[in-house]
Design goal:
alpha/beta, 8 helices, globular
């Protein structure tokens, strides 16, 4: 089994933090990382929906916002959302660092036994969170959303659906990791199990999602994929640039595949069982 070599944690860049939870507060059961980039249109409403879902769970939780140098009002809205809320914290980047770097930083700052993130546009809605957490409660080391796409006639949505399906097939051909949807932006893990895996991840951008899944598999984590629905928001201006980002994704995939091959002798040990809930 091929695996990636261990590498030291990345050097943390300077940032400004606000709304940090006092050390005297009890450790929460759940930490939800909210990676923010150009989220002005929907952020406040999405956080309200997420909070309602979390409150209904009956678990202690915290929200960790990581704002990745948006040029709109996202940072100001985050500051409003964390003000006077001890269960919410925020970090503001001085320069854009990318999706993978942003989520990884949030995971390291989190204090909960379970840590995860979901894309805050809620195109995979937070109502699926109880099912994802139930898989971890049942003994999995992590659980992710396996997206099915809601019917739609929008040409862009259809194109993204096609690209996503094609990528899933390519992923399965390239890597020894039997996941149907590695790119999903809805992933939760037992924190102590995923932190050592983070230290081996190198991608700072969109490919991070696939990289962390492969590395987790090679590290022996048992990951459950939970069926969820993806519904495109017609009011959202996507930050994804399809042609550019697909090309960068393929370059990152090829580089990661080469890195795994070169490190084949340094196996992290153990396979993982992947369960698919039907």
């Amino acid at each position: 089994m091929i695996a990636a070599p261990a590498r030291p944690p990345p050097t943390r860049r300077p940032h400004t933090a606000m709304g940090r939870t006092p050390a005297t507060n009890p450790t929460p059961e759940l930490s939800v990382v909210v990676a923010c980039f150009m989220e002005e249109q929907h952020l406040a409403d999405s956080v309200a929906q997420l909070t309602a879902t979390l409150d209904a769970l009956g678990r202690s939780y915290e929200l960790v916002f990581v704002e990745d140098k948006s040029s709109d009002r996202t940072a100001a809205i985050v500051a409003e959302l964390v003000a006077g809320r001890p269960e919410r914290r925020a970090v503001y980047h001085a320069a854009n660092q990318g999706r993978g770097a942003t989520v990884s930083e949030g995971f390291r700052l989190a204090r909960g036994r379970i840590v995860g993130f979901l894309d805050i546009d809620l195109e995979v809605h937070c109502r699926f969170l109880p099912s994802v957490l139930a898989a971890i409660d049942a003994g999995a080391d992590g659980a992710t959303a396996r997206r099915s796409y809601a019917p739609g006639r929008n040409p862009v949505s259809r194109l993204r659906k096609f690209v996503s399906r094609a990528y899933r097939q390519l992923f399965r051909r390239c890597f020894d990791a039997p996941f149907d949807d590695p790119e999903t932006g809805f992933k939760f893990f037992v924190r102590d199990r995923i932190l050592p895996v983070l230290d081996r991840a190198e991608d700072r951008h969109w490919f991070w999602d696939s990289e962390i899944m492969v590395l987790a598999h090679h590290a022996g984590l048992r990951i459950v994929e939970v069926p969820c629905t993806f519904a495109r928001r017609p009011d959202k201006a996507s930050t994804v640039r399809l042609a550019r980002d697909v090309w960068r994704h393929l370059v990152a995939l090829w580089a990661f595949r080469g890195r795994l091959r070169r490190a084949a002798a340094d196996s992290l040990g153990g396979g993982s069982d992947v369960e698919r809930q039907r």
